[in-house]
Design brief:
By secondary structure, the chain is mainly β. The protein is built from one helix and five strands; from the N terminus they run ββββαβ.
Length: about 90
């Protein structure tokens, strides 16, 4: 899973039927301290996330397809949770 922050939305006039009803959001991976953690990615929103939200992203095709219950969908990344708080302890 990837911890990330929503930094934008993709708007498309045409898309595959499988994407109907889903927002496609731009996610900036972040580290637990909030700093950037890599290049941005596109992910299907399944939890009604919004701009600036910290989210959990599954970035693996088979798992993503299981989340949206479409075994043949051309999907890799899906937002599966909105994060309220991140705590990092020394024992981790």
């Amino acid at each position: 899973m990837i911890l990330g922050r929503i930094v934008g939305t993709v708007v498309s006039t045409q898309k595959l039927d499988i994407y109907a009803g889903y927002k496609i959001l731009i996610v900036q991976p972040i580290k637990p301290d909030g700093s950037k953690g890599g290049g941005v990615l596109l992910a299907i929103d399944t939890v009604q996330a919004g701009s600036g939200d910290t989210v959990l992203v599954i970035d693996e095709g088979n798992s993503a397809r299981q989340v949206i219950d479409e075994p043949l969908a051309p999907v890799r990344s899906v937002i599966v949770g909105v994060v309220d708080h991140v705590t990092r302890g020394e024992s981790l």
